[in-house]
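Ops channel
N.P.: pipeline sanity check, posting one input/output pair.
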């Protein structure tokens, strides 16, 4: 057995069964709770007037308010460079959607912007990293967005700051359906028919919608996979939209200050339509896949 095979076996066998968070061992803390800087923002109900995937029905986010939300960018994108969203889940790994790479022939052209809220004024806390590799779920199918999950490894790790924090990935023990305070964020379109993306990160509060209802007649009959989540409102009006793909569906823990990334923005019929809420890939369902592939591909790329 060669050294690489031994390392892989040891890793899978039990050296690491969970995601390791290097930022002081913490994840999911927004700037007002960050050990790096004391800031205060209001995260309560707000009036919405915006977009979708870039968020429809949202508002501009405060600086560094979602410090794990990243922009995956492509030099050929006419949308301020923005291509897809993602969540920073370790110093060098981003969680996103597999369908973000359907039209990408050369991943080396991609780069990731971390720690920015506004593209035209990214600020001193923002950094950019080239992409080292992309790992797409082997069963992903574009035709129906099955297994729509992917990992992006950064060329170099980033350091945590008041602008850059790690997301907590929902683990198998979390009761996601019980979470009440849930939000989406992205730089996508802010109106359903818009061709432009938002310069500033948009945020919107959403409700988790029962999957059985979401999969029923008049909604998305039979189109929702067991590993999907639905979020938005039955009447529409607030949703993710084009450009928000790959970004997070985030819910605050019911008993703590930190936030969980429970879903990955995947698809939806139009934007903000009644009974057509956003559909998300459950991070909880793919937790083991995420852990396994981060470990194995990190070892392979280092060898």
């Amino acid at each position: 057995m060669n050294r690489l095979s031994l390392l892989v076996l040891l890793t899978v066998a039990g050296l690491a069964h969970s995601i390791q968070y290097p930022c002081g061992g913490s994840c999911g803390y927004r700037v007002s709770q960050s050990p790096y800087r004391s800031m205060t923002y209001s995260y309560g109900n707000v009036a919405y007037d915006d977009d979708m995937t870039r968020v429809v029905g949202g508002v501009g986010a405060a600086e560094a308010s979602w410090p794990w939300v990243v922009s995956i960018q492509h030099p050929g994108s006419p949308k301020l460079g923005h291509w897809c969203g993602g969540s920073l889940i370790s110093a060098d790994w981003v969680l996103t959607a597999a369908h973000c790479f359907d039209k990408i022939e050369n991943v080396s052209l991609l780069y990731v912007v971390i720690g920015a809220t506004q593209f035209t004024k990214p600020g001193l806390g923002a950094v950019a990293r080239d992409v080292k590799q992309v790992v797409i779920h082997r069963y992903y199918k574009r035709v129906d967005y099955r297994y729509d999950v992917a990992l992006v490894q950064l060329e170099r790790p980033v350091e945590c700051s008041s602008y850059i924090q790690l997301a907590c990935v929902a683990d198998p023990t979390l009761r996601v359906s019980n979470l009440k305070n849930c939000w989406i964020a992205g730089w996508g379109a802010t109106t359903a028919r818009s061709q432009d993306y938002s310069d500033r990160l948009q945020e919107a509060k959403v409700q988790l919608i029962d999957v059985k209802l979401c999969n029923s007649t008049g909604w998305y009959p039979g189109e929702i996979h067991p590993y999907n989540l639905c979020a938005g409102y039955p009447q529409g009006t607030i949703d993710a939209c084009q450009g928000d793909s790959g970004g997070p569906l985030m819910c605050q823990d019911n008993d703590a200050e930190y936030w969980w990334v429970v879903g990955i923005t995947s698809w939806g019929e139009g934007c903000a339509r009644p009974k057509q809420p956003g559909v998300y890939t459950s991070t909880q369902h793919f937790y083991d896949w995420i852990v396994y592939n981060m470990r194995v591909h990190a070892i392979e790329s280092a060898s």
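N.P.: looks fine end to end. The first helix runs from residue 3 to 15.
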